[in-house]
Amino acid sequence: MSLFNPEDPFEIDLISITERAAVFNVEIKRINAKMDNAIMSYKDFVTYIEAILAISNSTSDYWKLNVVNDNKFLTKKQSVLLENPEDINERLIATFEYHVVYNISYAVPVLCFDVWNQNGSRISLEDYWKYNKHLRDFNMHDTLTQTDHPALNRPIFAFHPCKTHEILKGFARTSKNPIVSWLSVVRHFVHLELLETYIKNC
Amino acid sequence: MANDREILREIWEGKLPICFRLDSEEVADVREPDPFYLMVPRLSYFPLVTDKVKRHFVKYVDSEKSEQEMWLEYNGQPLKWHYPIGVLFDLLFDKDEILPWNITVHLDKFPDAEIFRFSNKDMVESYFMSCLKEADVLKHRGQIAGSMQKKDHNQLWLGLQNDKFDQFWAVNRKLMETTNDTEYFKYIPFRCYLENGYKQKLVKPVGDNGSKRTLQDLLNEMFPDQPEVQIKTHGLIPPLDTPLQWLSEHLSYPDNFLHLCVV
């Protein structure tokens, strides 16, 4: 059934349009249902981070699974050379510790991190912002915040979880491990390396 | 929607007398600085009310340290000043002491692994708004805070910062309404504080059989092994049969969370 009726080029096939609209509506409903499913339970969160840990262990990557006060979360330490995009002579070696934790209110994973310079002192949020070209187009306070680590009860930097749900929605239908898919999107903001193996397995 | 308006106002007007003293080891002047007294709103945050405290003490410290960020300490612990002042008081104030609350001021060795760094008021605002949005995610799936305009957010923030009840509540009442023909929030935004931090859980204000759930139900869920546990908020110990929906509408802090300190 085509939209175009060769008998009369100006008469659009209305039945076909209605049918297509119906199909479209079903599709939207299906996506919406999936979108609701993009809310991740803590149980699912644990399944996904354990899958990441399994790949990490088999590839000699350095993700660690932590259990504190009944909360499970992943951590990884990594050193990175940071350059100020506006002045390449301004550089520093930063050590990141990434934490992938669960946020109960938003029902999503949250990427948190601590970042130190070489003398062991913490880098402030403003300084960190300056060194990352991926962050330039965003408002700092809407994107990164200090937050209470849900398991350790101490301050840590975090990506605000309010956008995470949207990112997860985009992967809801295709990804076997939505945490890996989401990390592949947000990792650039924190210089997090993610081996191909994770992406291939999700 | 909150209808016991006089209760909202009573809660809003709660204040605490505080005596700030500079840590004696940081005094670099021959004169010992006078203590600094303030009445502060329980619902506010220390970084919003202590500019004057810093100005008062900064001239007594080593000039090299005068640019450093201030922090506060009570009983040997840095105050987690991202908690509202009333929460810190209910959680930490030693029952054997008398008011005013004696707090030590530091301008050196900021403990950044333990407390938030609030270099300016924007950072406090950002934190406050993120709590408020989180509360709305729990109550209304984030639909009310999300549909508000920037000017509404500003009005909430300025209302709190300038201690203006009417300004704050003109917008906050929308966040305290219920939607979709129900008289309940989806979940109750609350934090239950123990000595070294707080816990959150998803708790509904209404049972599967349609009955109103109470503070007792919440505590049973949080502490199944401790039937005797009691909590304090705004200096009060609310009766355990208080319905959760009423508690949330009337005794939440401006960030829209109930902050419950286990006593």
TrEMBL record, chain A:
Keyword NADP: no
Residue runs in coiled coils: none
Record keywords: Autophagy, Transferase, Ubl conjugation pathway
Pfam families in alphabetical order: Autophagy_act_C
GO molecular function (one): Atg12 conjugating enzyme activity
Gene3D superfamilies referenced in this protein's UniProt entry, alphabetically: 3.30.1460.50
Signal sequence residues: none
One Gene Ontology cellular component annotation held by this UniProt entry: cytosol
Protein's GO biological process: autophagosome assembly; autophagy of mitochondrion; protein modification by small protein conjugation
Family assignment from sequence similarity: Belongs to the ATG10 family.
Protein name per UniProt: Ubiquitin-like-conjugating enzyme ATG10
Organism: Phyllotreta striolata
Source organism phylogeny: Eukaryota, Metazoa, Ecdysozoa, Arthropoda, Hexapoda
Automatic annotation (TrEMBL), chain B:
Listed transmembrane segments: none
Record-level GO BP terms: apoptotic process; autophagosome assembly; autophagy of mitochondrion; cellular response to nitrogen starvation; immune system process; negative regulation of programmed cell death; piecemeal microautophagy of the nucleus
GO cellular component, one term: mitochondria-associated endoplasmic reticulum membrane contact site
Pfam families to which the protein is assigned, alphabetical: ATG5_HBR (PF20637), ATG5_UblA (PF20638), ATG5_UblB (PF04106)
Residue span, Autophagy protein ATG5 UblA domain: 11-107
Domain Autophagy protein ATG5 alpha-helical bundle region: 122-178
Top-rank taxon: Eukaryota
Gene3D superfamilies: 3.10.20.620, Autophagy protein Apg5, helix rich domain, Phosphatidylinositol 3-kinase Catalytic Subunit, Chain A, domain 1
A GO molecular function held by the record: Atg8-family ligase activity
Domain Autophagy protein ATG5 UblB: 187-262
Main location: cytoplasm
Alphabetically ordered keywords of this record: Acetylation, Apoptosis, Autophagy, Cytoplasm, Immunity, Isopeptide bond, Membrane, Ubl conjugation
Membrane topology: Peripheral membrane protein
Subcellular location: Cytoplasm; Preautophagosomal structure membrane
Subunit: Conjugated with ATG12. Forms a conjugate with ATG12. Part of the minor complex composed of 4 sets of ATG12-ATG5 and ATG16L1 (400 kDa); this complex interacts with ATG3 leading to disruption of ATG7 interaction and promotion of ATG8-like proteins lipidation. Forms an 800-kDa complex composed of ATG12-ATG5 and ATG16L2. The ATG12-ATG5 conjugate interacts with RAB33A; this interaction is bridged by ATG16L1 and promotes ATG12-ATG5-ATG16L1 complex recruitment to phagophores. Interacts with TECPR1; the interaction is direct and does not take place when ATG16L1 is associated with the ATG5-ATG12 conjugate.
Protein family membership: Belongs to the ATG5 family.
Protein name: Autophagy protein 5
Annotated source species: Phyllotreta striolata
Species classification: Eukaryota, Metazoa, Ecdysozoa, Arthropoda, Hexapoda
